[in-house]
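Tokens in:
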């Protein structure tokens, strides 16, 4: 898994034009038709959490596993993709991923209880996690290295649209159809993507020379984080000092320690090569990426819940109110990329963190009547900060590494991002659930949630519900502000000043899910 997929489509001839011809553009649209489903599903479910809690009569610390399980599956499957593409060929892996994703979507839409929904979301994530890296491999081999910048701009389309459209589409489906349609809508889209793949994606030839899959790493690392997150979820019912909480956390820590020892022994053939952290820039950026995942992806769970519970908005309205953050990120990302190449991430990322912090402050003071204009403006500022933080941090992480380590480093960073988001979602959900339970004991318990509060009662307790969000947002603010420490250690020189290495024959195997 340590290298980038090498069998997707034959590279263009050396003398080929730098322009993206019609064939590459069509292939790019075919890839986007698949990847956009997986990226939308990282945010589309958030606006349905309140409805899911009500329908399945369960609390937030359990419901958050619908999001957390999906993200854990995404992170787990990322490093498998390179091995699978070389072993089976790009088109086979791509089509298998779509089948898994569509099957998980259909089963999620038919879920009969919360446990079945969580299991089916994991299946959905296993398919979705392979779509982006496989699609990038197919496109990169078809276009060749000289056109990779323009190819990446095609792949970036769903990355920019997902955070904007996901909550809006999800909210509309929840309000006007049924929550099951946020999953079932993927079935016809996936069927179309499958047909397009059969028509357009080159078959590719499997390569047998790839390193063996790190099965021991798979047995150690994903369960380690699953146990840790489960321990956090137990804190809602038993408290952080309970054996039922720290026992699970300790078990997760032991597995992480065992994985570190295993990775040091296996080296670049491990699921994550921990020796990469010997590079100061990579280690610093990895800490920043983890905190971005915990603070920012985790807070995406809080925002729609505030609008729906404390303010009584519909799922669709909540999705629209979240759009300014996606717009801000979409505007800032290309500008931040150019500035990072010229000035270095160490000069761009701290500015982004200041914007992120300023945009989060307003949510630590929310009430039942806080101006939507103020909150929308704050979300737009947060989006600008997000766009100026995430991609520059990840690009700086690989800037000082040897070219042969780029694919492994990129894969590792994306795993760290997904795991950070999983931890953040669980941590903030548990904290919010406890805050609501402390203020409204009648809304807590394992067989209910704040989604069960009648509307007439909700209006009366809205100030207490809004106040319950203060502590989670303060935690998110603290974690965001803590990003300034690693950010100040990032390189303060642009790419033009870095030591030159020959262009890579291979490309990083995955781009981050926002």
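Residues out:
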């Amino acid at each position: 898994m340590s290298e980038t997929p090498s069998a997707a489509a034959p590279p263009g001839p050396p003398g080929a034009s730098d322009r993206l011809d019609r064939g590459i553009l069509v292939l790019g649209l075919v890839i986007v038709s698949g990847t956009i489903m997986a990226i939308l599903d990282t945010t589309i479910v958030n606006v349905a959490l309140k409805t899911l809690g009500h329908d399945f009569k369960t609390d937030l610390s359990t419901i958050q596993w619908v999001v957390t399980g999906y993200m854990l599956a995404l992170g787990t499957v990322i490093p498998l993709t390179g091995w699978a593409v070389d072993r089976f060929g790009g088109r086979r892996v791509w089509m298998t991923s779509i089948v898994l994703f569509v099957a998980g979507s259909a089963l999620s839409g038919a879920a009969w209880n919360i446990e079945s929904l969580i299991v089916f979301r994991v299946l959905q994530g296993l398919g979705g996690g392979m779509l982006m890296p496989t699609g990038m491999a197919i496109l990169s081999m078809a276009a060749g290295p000289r056109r990779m910048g323009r190819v990446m701009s095609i792949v970036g389309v769903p990355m920019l649209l997902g955070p904007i459209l996901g909550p809006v589409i999800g909210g509309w489906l929840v309000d006007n159809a049924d929550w099951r349609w946020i999953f079932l809508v993927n079935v016809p889209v996936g069927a179309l993507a499958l047909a397009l793949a059969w028509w357009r994606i080159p078959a590719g030839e499997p390569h047998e020379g790839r390193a063996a899959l790190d099965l021991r790493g798979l047995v150690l690392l994903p369960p380690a984080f699953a146990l840790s997150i489960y321990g956090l979820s137990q804190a809602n019912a038993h408290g952080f000092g309970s054996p039922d909480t720290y026992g699970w956390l300790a078990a997760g820590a032991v597995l992480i320690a065992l994985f570190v020892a295993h990775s040091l022994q296996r080296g670049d053939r491990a699921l994550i090569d921990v020796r990469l952290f010997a590079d100061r820039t990579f280690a610093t950026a990895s800490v920043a990426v983890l905190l971005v995942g915990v603070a920012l992806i985790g807070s995406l769970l809080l925002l729609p819940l505030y609008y729906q519970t404390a303010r009584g908005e519909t799922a669709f309205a909540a999705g629209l109110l979240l759009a300014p953050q996606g717009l801000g990120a979409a505007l800032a990302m290309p500008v931040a990329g150019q500035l990072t190449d010229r000035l270095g991430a160490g000069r761009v990322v701290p500015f982004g963190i200041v914007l992120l912090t300023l945009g989060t402050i307003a949510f630590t003071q929310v009430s039942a009547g806080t101006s939507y204009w103020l909150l929308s403006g704050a979300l737009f500022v947060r989006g600008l900060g997000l766009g100026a933080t995430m991609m520059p941090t990840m690009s700086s992480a690989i800037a000082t590494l040897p070219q042969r380590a780029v694919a492994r480093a990129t894969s590792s960073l994306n795993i760290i991002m997904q795991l950070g988001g999983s931890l953040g979602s669980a941590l903030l959900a548990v904290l919010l659930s406890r805050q609501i339970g402390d203020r409204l004991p009648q809304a807590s318990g394992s067989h209910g949630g704040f989604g069960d509060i009648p509307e007439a009662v909700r209006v009366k307790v809205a100030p207490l519900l809004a106040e319950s969000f203060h502590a989670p947002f303060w935690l998110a603010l603290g974690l965001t502000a803590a990003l300034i420490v690693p950010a100040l250690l990032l390189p303060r020189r642009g790419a033009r000043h870095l030591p030159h290495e020959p262009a890579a024959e291979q490309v990083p195997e995955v781009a981050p899910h926002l």
